[in-house]
Amino acid sequence: MLAIIRCIIAFLPVQIYRTIILPVVFYECETWSLILRDERRLRVFENRDLRRIFGTKRDEVTGEWRKLRNEELNDLYCSRNIIRVIKSRIMRLAGHVAHKEETRGVYRILVAKSEGKTPLGKSRRRWEDNIRMGFREVG
User: Fold this and answer.
1) Residues near 102 by beta carbon (within 8 Å), at least 6 away in sequence
2) What pLDDT, in 10s, does the model give residues 79-119?
């Protein structure tokens, strides 16, 4: 009975994370234009929260308590990381938009070319650039 209670207590924070925190993070993520800095921040956010949920681990060799490594967190959490979920949602929205008629506003916004001068310096990554990178990653 005590083992079942411990299992439920360990399972509860993960369920809270999946049902409350992740939907807030994923809200409108399909329209984001992710840059590497954003991806790094999201990974740090996910690992920090998972470390809070799973706590520390006792080292078998030294007997000291230590933080869990990222690989250990991924093994314990058993779910896709946050970046893959966001990229898959972006790709899914791009597929929906690509199947729209050419007269629809969403399609026209996706394929439209901006007019006017562009600012100096390196151009910012656009949503369309993320779609192309996603197709290259997927193959």
Assistant:
1) 108
2) 788 888 998 888 888 888 777 777 777 666 666 666 777 77
Give 21-74 pLDDT, tens digit per residue.
899 999 988 888 888 899 999 999 998 888 888 888 877 888 888 888 888 888
- Of 85, 53, 78, 56, nearest to 69 by C-alpha is 56
Domain ranges of the chain: 80-111+125-139
Model pTM score: 0.72
Read off the DSSP letter of residue 100: S
Residues 6+ apart with CB under 8 A from 45: 25, 82
Q: Which amino acid type is present at position 74?
A: N
72, 57 contact by CB (below 8 A): yes
Coil, helix or strand for 44? Answer: helix
* 3-state SS class at 63: coil
> Reduced to 3 states, what is the DSSP secondary structure of residue 104?
coil
**Backbone torsions φ then ψ of 52, nearest 5 degrees:** -65, -35
Q: How far is CA 103 from CA 41, 48, 52, 113, 127, in A?
A: 38, 45, 49, 16, 20
